[in-house]
Amino acid sequence: MTHSRPNEFIPPPECPVFEPSWEEFADPFGFINKIRPIAENTGICKIRPPPGWQPPFACDVDRLHFTPRIQRLNELEAQTRVKLNFLDQIAKFWELQGCTLKIPHVERKTLDLYVLYKLVKEEGGFDVVCKERRWTQIAIKMGFAPGKAIGSHLRAHYERILYPYYLFQAGANLMQNAQKPTLTNDTKDKEYKSHDLPQRQSVQPVETCTIARRAKRTEGRCLKSEQGEMSENKPNLRRRMGSCVAKQEPVKEIPIQVKQEPVEPTTEGEKSKVEQYICLVCGGGGDEDRLLLCDGCDDSYHTFCLIPPLHDVPKGDWRCPTCLAKECGKPQVAFGFEQAPRDYTLRTFGDMADSFKSDYFNMPVHMVPTELVEKEFWRLVSTIEEDVTVEYGADIASKDFGSGFPVKNGTFKVSPEEEDYLSSGWNLNNMPVLDASVLTHVTADICGMKLPWLYVGMCFSSFCWHIEDHWSYSVNYLHWGEPKTWYGAPGYAAEQLENVMKSLAPELFESQPDLLHQLVTIMNPNLLMDHGVPIFRTNQCAGEFVITFPRSYHSGFNQGFNFAEAVNFCTADWMPLGRQCIEHYRSLNRYCVFSHDEMTCNIATKADSLELELACAVQKDMSMMIQEEKELRERVYKLGVWHSQQVDYDLLPDEDRQCAQCRTTCYLSAITCPCSPEQLVCLHHIQDLCSCPPSSYTLNYKYTLAELNPLFQALTSRAESYDDWASKVNKILKADQDNKSDLEDLRSLIAEAEKKMYPETDLLNHLRQVIQNAERSASMAQQLLNGKRQTRYRSGGGKSQNQLTVEELRSFVNQLYDLPCNIRQAPFLKALLNRVEQFQQQSSDLLAEDMPSSSALQSLLDEGAALDVELPQLAVLRQRLEQARWVEAVQQASDQPANLSLDCMRRLIDQGVGLAPHACVERTMARLQELLTVCEHWEEKAHNMLSARPRHSIETLEAAIQEVDGIPAYLPSCLQLKDCVSRAREWIKEADALQVGGRIPVLATLSELVSRARSIPVTLEPLTRLESLVSEVQAWKESAAKTFLLRNSTHSLLEVLCPRCETGSQKSKSKKVKDGLIPCKKADVKLDSLCDVERALCTSKDTASAMAALGDVRQKELESLLILRTSNESKLQSSPSSLAPTVCLCHTVPAGPMLQCELCRDAYHSGCVPGFKDIPAGQPWLCPLCKRSEKPPLDKVLPLLASLQRIRVRLPEGDALRYLIERTVRWQHRVQQVSLLTEHPIGKARHISGTASPHTLDESIGSFYMLQPCIPLDGLSTELEELLVEGLLLQVTLPELQQLYSNLINRFSPPQHSLQSSEHDHQYHIAQDRSPPHKSSPHRSPSHKSPPHRSPSIHRSPSIHRSPPHSNGQDGVPEIRKESEKVEKKNKRRLEKGNMDGQPRDKMKKPKKKKPKMDKERRREEKRTISPSNSLSDPSYSEDSEEDWSVCSAKRCQQPEGTEVNWVQCDGSCNQWFHQVCVGVSAEQAENEDYICKTCASKNMTE
């Protein structure tokens, strides 16, 4: 592809596109008549059928074959063809003189010789331009840049190429002129190849020729041959053809003067062949080698006789001066299209077309944009340097190969669902012959007008500017394929377009006046638009119709391979244009396709069956026809034509009855002369018939004037009935206000028109429209009056859809009164209009107020909404109502300051921001904004004062409160500030009254007061003193806790200092009570728990009441403890029938070395109570539950009480300490009064439990013995027991208690020899003991592994194989301690599983068992108390002797072996160990679930 020109093609505006509904599409002419007022202004329009209208393609594709026309694109454009004709003439001029034309290049552009020739001619000729030196101006006009000496080049080219031709055209004698007709060319110039249009069109195409569709003009070659005489053929009178050649005009010879020599006359018969070849200049026949023979006339000339003489014989053809003048003087042959050299089928043509387009654009055909094709087409037609040749299968008769639409009785069979297309009005076979079409009355079948023509297009194939024959309508349907681009001009611009084209290409119209009727010339739409011609375009796609209107010029081209079908039609509105067209054809001497007068008379013979619209149109046309015919016949009679005869012209073919002058088809009359009976003329050209006098002429007529009148009267009668009806309608429609008819009268006229089948004229449609408008107006008026509009719906704004505005209502009322009939609802609507106007006045008055009340606005809004009219005041009233409500809301909120919060003010401001501007709103908004600013300032200031560090004084806050009191709003921070000041005042009052009268404040009250003070963001002067006091109390409590509490103790200080109020079973440990006060639900005082005691102490009024409460607790403590001692002592007594007792922290049976608490008398395994060895000799041993504190000496306790008294604050711990000291003092007094020796003689003393004899239980369970001697209960009196118990309960260390206990323990101790003699007698075994003999070595074999040891918190001993320790007076205690160390060591060892033969056993895994909830710190303390030196002090107590611990208690032990063996312990009453594999328990089950052995499970079931 070549590059586009700088001035690219600009597409014209689009023509209208219509998409009819199915109802509109059902009547083709009705729809076309409907769109005609719009579409005829553009000349063409496009119609898209409703979706789904797709007729089948019925053309016989296999039979269809055609020979297309050849179209060379640059020959189609008018101005380009003028240039090509000019260049052909120049080339021919030089060729006949033996020279070849080569077009020169200037500034790298091909020189436009035609433009140069025209410009020089316009400037006065070569001599004038040279004389006045205008070559530079000519160069500038041709588009060359000035200042490059282009003018001199142009002069040289003109003088060399064009000036000889100019002189020749001017008739100068070249042989007598000094100018030498020689042509010298630059070797760089390319040879010009002539189009040779006459020769090309006269030669028949060769079937084997191929078409060069695209070639450069300077490179291609054209066929050259002699042009013979054109035979005068009769044109096709039924249809104009683009390839039709006009009659050749006589040749105009240009006289040429040659050099004359005297020649002797000789007769032709006397001349010999040699004598015939003599030089016509010198008359001699010599020098035959220098004798030239003209290729045109065979005349001979010597080369040296020619002027100027020729040095050599020219190569190729040579013409003598006479033939040169004759050849160049021939007129141009009428341009037409050649026929292609081959015949195509639809398939072969499609393959060729698609191949051409894809090759040309180098892309698939469907991807080429239509815009690109359009611009390239107009570029190609405007260039002379590039030839593109295409083929167009145009004007293919559908009667030969079948139409693309299905027809009745055709070869194409349609399916039942497609039968509607056979009779469809849009079927182009039916449209020309519909009842509303005038062409129905044309008897002949005219191809292209009544019978559709087919068009097979390819890319760039075009149809040139033309109007339809007889200025008729045309319809074109594109069946399939690529789009067809159309350009059209409206009918009123037809003459303007013709004049523009004639002015731009006058040379073409000089030889062909009817050039535009030959469909062979196009012109760029942009050029026409530049000259004021309105042009419109469209792209017709497959399945779309294009309609052209009468006398609308149209042209276009195809975007690619497609198949279209076209036909003409005429409607009643065309009749006057059709007669005007005949007059136009007569002026151009152009053939008619049919006789318009004949058609009019045929229509008149069927007047009774005509539609009234057509009858009226034909009646007017016939009236003009009769009047013209009458005038012409009178004129003929005046000229002396008296002879006449009636001729039936219906029987003659059109060729035999056409005017010899204007070629119009005659029908009503014609003139003939006996001198030439076959020739006739119309009455308009009687003077052009022949030279005979008119008296010899004969008038041939079809009808006499008398015979035409009945036809005219029939039409008039048919048309006048309609006119009478129309006059009635016009009278009613134009009646004044007082003479209006009712709506029923108009309906009766419609009924009359339907009864008489009047045509669908504009008047009838107007009447129907008037009735429809009147009915619609009456219905709408009634709905307005009823307030029930069908389309009304309430929206958020209260506006109804399609409501009438006031102006519309006023216009509607006026419309009702302007209707040509009376509407009874009109007065009522007039009253409604008055109410609306009254509402508008009230609205105007109310809106004039500054701010009316919302109630008045709402009332007026309700009234306006009831009118059911769109009132602009309603929107203003709603706007003002919103404003009024907002102002009232602000006023209401301001009247209630307690509810006017910051959020409320912001919300009101946000609401006010969205309101329309108003003075009252602005003032209210300003006040509200000012109030909000002040409030936000004080809120922020109050918040900052509340969170300030350091805190502000109460005086500062009170001063700020005084300023805030005047703000009429709800300010949370300011109110909080007020509350803080109030609370601060109240707190100061309470703090001042706390120690009024020497009262000692209670710690709880003091703490509560300090806590309250910390929450008040005010600087409180007493707070520092009170916080210091609380800090001292807390320091005192910490000092007391360090003095009394054990390490990691679970007891609180109050719990230790107070008498115990929970001394139940040792299995249930009392809950830990927090230091703080725990509220109780009941108001009565109870002392059953520490919580009750603490509450009683806190609520006591003075120290005396607190001491009394503690005294009650002491009494309960003694009573419950004595009962507990008796119960625990009885458990250890042997009873064969009773169940084994559970003792110790582990709640298991007593076994092995045991310890007995001196206070509660309960027994404990020595391994479960760590630290028993640290008890000094002669002091009682207390269990972990009874030993609750460190028991400091009294001299450390008294300073605590003294420091507390200095603090002067009451607290429960202080009262409890005071009571403890008083109780201790009282106990000391009692001890001093007791004499132990007198009450209990030594001779009656019992042996101490656990040292005289072993305690034996059921042998299936085990035996135990006591490591610590205890004072027997039955050896003490009640008073002495109470004294001992209370001494043990005291949480201080007293020497009196140690003395008392030593006396009692010495008093009841057994003799020393009894302990020594029983050293090896009291050994306790179990039946299942499998332990091997003890090894003598105290060291352990490396092959042995440690057995699994039992947790100190779960110390369960199935058997003890150990002798009791020796006891020797005071030395008994160390022996017991040593024995206990051995037992403790046993508890820490791991169980080793070995074979019965004593070989090394594999490492076993520690049995997994869930541990009871016991303090971990206590177990750590237990481990720390067992020193390694003590555990290894006894060599006989080795680890090898403890293999009895590794015995599985299962009846059928599987004796597992391996690196690790898992164990599980029974969670029942036996607490025995088992291999997991022996009892079927997995490691996960043993870790997460309780295991109960079979023995314990059966016991539980029996219980």
Quick overview:
With 1503 residues, this protein is of the alpha+beta class.
Question: Features of this protein?
Answer:
single chain, alpha+beta, ten-stranded mixed β-sheet, four-stranded antiparallel β-sheet, 9% strand, elongated
Write the layout of secondary structure elements.
Blueprint: E1 17-18, H1 22-25, H2 28-39, E2 44-47, E3 65-66, E4 69-72, H3 73-76, H4 78-95, E5 102-103, E6 105-106, E7 109-110, H5 113-122, H6 126-132, H7 135-141, H8 150-169, E8 190-191, H9 197-202, E9 214-216, H10 273-276, E10 291-293, E11 300-302, H11 321-328, E12 338-339, E13 344-345, H12 346-361, H13 370-380, E14 386-397, H14 398-401, H15 420-423, E15 453-457, E16 462-466, E17 473-481, E18 484-488, H16 494-504, H17 506-511, H18 525-530, E19 536-540, E20 545-548, E21 554-558, E22 562-569, H19 575-588, H20 596-604, H21 612-639, E23 643-646, E24 669-673, E25 676-681, E26 698-701, H22 705-733, H23 743-755, H24 762-786, H25 806-818, H26 826-847, H27 854-865, H28 872-895, H29 902-913, H30 919-946, H31 954-964, H32 972-993, H33 1003-1014, H34 1021-1044, H35 1053-1057, H36 1090-1099, H37 1103-1131, E27 1152-1156, E28 1163-1165, H38 1194-1207, H39 1212-1233, H40 1236-1239, E29 1255-1256, E30 1263-1266, H41 1278-1289, H42 1295-1307, H43 1312-1317, H44 1372-1388, H45 1416-1425, H46 1428-1431, E31 1463-1465, E32 1473-1475, H47 1476-1479, H48 1483-1488, ...
Parallel strand pairs: 1-2, 23-26, 27-30
Antiparallel strand pairs: 2-20, 3-13, 4-12, 4-14, 5-8, 6-7, 9-14, 10-11, 14-15, 15-22, 16-21, 17-20, 17-22, 18-19, 18-21, 24-25, 24-26, 27-28, 29-30, 31-32
